Amino acid sequence: MNWGTLTGTLFSSGLALTLLWLRARRITLKRRVEPYLRVPEPDARSARSARSTQVRGPFAFFIELVGPSYRALATWIQQFSHRSNRLRVRLEQAGSPLSPTEFRSQQVLWSMAGLVIGLLLAVPLAISGRVPVLPAFFVAMIFPLSAALLRDWMLSQAVTRRAAALATELPTIAELLALAVGAGEAPLGALERVARRTEGELNRELRRTVSDVHAGTSMEAALRALAQRSHVGAVTRFADAISVAIDRGTPLAQVLHDQARDAREESRRQLMELSGRKEIAMMVPVVFFILPITVLFAIYPGLTALRGGL
């Protein structure tokens, strides 16, 4: 082995151990407050785990050094799993059949495609000398990051579009269910009839609910699953109202009519809020483009007359 390689390895190992030692000696807020708190008595399992973590022997010092870094890594992995759970919820909101792993794989593929495009643009510029190497490298790195963010933005747009479609289709679906129930159909039969005669995002959810009921799930559980999958407030209240009406024997037709009316009122309120925001946005071109041009046309003849008089 080369002496330089051996010296560098020993120096880097010593530097890493020194950094770990300094990290272990750092006093955190938890270590400051913990002696002044009354901790409940641990049970047998936690006591065994606590005794197992108190290692004695030649490796105790190494474990004491590596312990904080290991706990930080475990916390980071746990946060990443929470992000995966949030991504799973977003995919359900978008109605996508992809799993979080498949979505991340698509993001990686998009990043690779962006990297290829960035290299195809940056390498010729760097070779020809038109752009320095460092700016060309940063330009090439912007493309994969932008591609990954673009895929995430497309998912967010799909979530928004699907939520708007569910909220828009709900009043019509609720009225059709109310007419079917009022005509003497059972709740499951009304859901089947409406699912056969309609199309759209809410129709797909109704078909899935009917399939769950035919597979052996109770009507209440299938409606709760519908509310959990939709992640839309109006649809959640709609499914909960139907479930409560079936459970308590409340007249279902009246409940469905009330839900349709509430959904229309909420849609009208959201439309008024959107129109208010659009009205403010419409003032931007008026103030910054149309008004200056109007003022310019108003004062230009006077400026011309003054210039001619001078």
N/C terminus separation: 91 Å
- CATH C-level of the domain at 168-273: Mainly Alpha
Largest sheet: none
Q: Beta-sheet strand percentage?
A: under 5%
Give the helix tally.
Answer: 11
SSE succession:
HHHHHHHHHHH
Mean pLDDT: 76
Oligomer: single chain
Radius of gyration: 32 Å
CATH architecture of the domain at 168-273: Up-down Bundle
Apparent shape:
extended
Poorly predicted runs are 40-57
CATH topology of the domain at 168-273: Receptor-associated Protein
Please tally the β strands and state the result: 0
Helix coverage percent: over 70%
* Alpha-beta classification: mainly alpha
Structure described in brief:
This protein is an all-alpha fold and 310 residues long.
Task: Please provide a written account of the structure.
The protein is an all-alpha fold. Among the domains are: 54 residues; 106 residues, Up-down Bundle (Receptor-associated Protein). The chain is 85% helix and 0% strand. The chain has eleven helices and no strands. It is extended and about 90 Å long. About 6% of the residues have low confidence.
Labels describing this entry:
310 residues; mainly alpha; Receptor-associated Protein; 11 helices; extended
